[in-house]
Design a protein that fits this description.
The protein is of the alpha/beta class and 381 residues long. It contains twelve helices and 14 strands. Bound molecules: pyridoxal-5'-phosphate (PLP).
């Protein structure tokens, strides 16, 4: 099919006039660089939204994870257990901190870290666990917290995709981890193009993360309040992980819109669940009953008699955006991992992400479902 009737992109940000107006206000203010008033306001609002005591805006989720690992003290000689089925920013951050990632396999239904097999990975060198909320569904934090406490480990939530998701009635970011890291990349539910945040309740950890995110000193805004000529001293080497004021202004609008954006994604997910669940060879996502999904992505699992890669090619030819799910990190050559995570590897080979964003019209959803039905029927015959 050379000329598809419709083009439905896999992902699309929902940004418009309100965000543009917020950017215009930042231009007028003259403060465009990072860690200014818009970042401070967003941090207050994001802490409230996630139910955490403190929030720190960052350049992205990777930098938020790196800060988390640094303030929790991960370093050379330490092992950190990470969920294997993830965008490998999770394990990269462990390496940035100088520690070694140990990959944990995942549950076959939700794709989240498998708490049953996790205990066997703990060694005397293990210092912590990073659990990922796979494409927006919170991991099993009740069990994870119990396990971490029993083994004397810290626990980090990679909440890159889960702004607005909940676990046992509480928002992602305050569901049991010591620190949680979020992403505001363009493919996420709320976005400023790029951006991230670290949240947590421990003020010492969060204050140190704040210094480390601005080269190792207190940000200018906190010094501005002083009537003295405050000259900061560098006590440790930090980074520039500051979100710009332009991004923060956009994010403040996006955060206000979060409930509506999640509702639109949920509506799309419910439609897909209903329409795709009867197709032989296709399984729809499983959401555990005690949590809500933010639907950063909608992943179907494609099995016999269908073939994932062949379905992807057919869908793209008909204008339906799609991609593999996410990575089995241990299979990435850079890690030279000697471990095996067969469930994660299986999901890596069978998952297909189909269009999921807040701008999908009924006609888009119907088109996607029609194309998938047709492709599946043709492939079986
Ligand atoms: C689970 C997970 N962690 C971390 C990241 C990295 O986020 P960022 O691009 O904001 O650094 C992503 C991005 O896709 C992700 O999906």
């Amino acid at each position: 099919v050379n000329d598809p009737i419709r083009n439905v992109p896999l992902g699309q940000p929902t940004v418009g006039d309100e965000e543009l107006q917020a950017v215009a206000e930042v231009f007028a203010s003259g403060w465009l660089s990072g860690a200014g008033p818009a970042c401070a306001a967003l941090e207050k609002e994001f802490a409230e939204a996630t139910g955490a005591e403190h929030a720190l805006t960052t350049t992205n989720c990777g930098s938020a994870l790196h800060l988390a690992l640094q303030v929790l003290g991960a370093g050379p000689g330490d092992e950190v257990i990470v969920s294997d089925y993830t965008f490998p920013a999770t394990s990269h951050a462990v390496v940035w901190a100088g520690a070694t990632p140990v990959f944990a396999d995942v549950r076959p239904d939700t794709g989240n870290i498998d708490t049953d097999s996790l205990a066997a990975l703990v060694t005397p060198r293990t210092v912590g666990i990073i659990a990922v909320d796979l494409v927006g569904q919170p991991a099993d934090f009740l069990q994870l917290r119990e396990l971490a406490d029993k083994a004397g480990l810290w626990l980090v939530e990679d909440a890159a995709c889960s702004s607005g998701a909940t676990y046992m009635g509480r928002p992602a970011g305050s569901i049991g981890a010591d620190l949680a890291a979020f992403s505001f990349h363009g493919r996420k539910g709320i976005t400023a193009g790029e951006g991230g945040a670290l949240v947590g309740n421990d003020s010492d950890l969060m204050e140190r993360a704040r210094r480390l995110h601005t080269y190792g000193i207190a940000p200018a805004l906190t010094r501005e309040a002083s009537s003295q000529l405050a000259i900061p001293q560098f006590e440790e080497i930090g980074h520039n992980y500051r979100m710009s004021e332009v991004q923060a202004a956009i994010m403040r609008v996006q955060l206000r819109r979060l409930p509506d954006l999640i509702a639109a994604r949920t509506r799309a997910a419910e439609f897909y669940n209903r329409e795709l669940s009867g197709i032989n060879g296709i399984s729809v996502p499983v959401v555990a009953p005690d949590r809500t999904h933010s639907w950063q992505s909608y992943l179907i699992e494609i099995d016999d008699p269908l073939d994932r890669d062949a379905v992807a090619i057919e869908l793209r030819a008909r204008g339906v955006g799609c991609n593999f799910g996410t990575y089995a990190a241990h299979l990435q050559p850079v890690y030279q991992a000697k471990q095996s995570c067969p469930i994660s590897a299986g999901l890596f080979s069978r998952h297909l992400a189909i269009p999921m964003h807040a701008n999908l019209a009924n006609e888009d959803l119907e088109y996607v479902v029609d194309v998938i039905r047709t492709v599946a029927a043709n492939m079986k015959s």
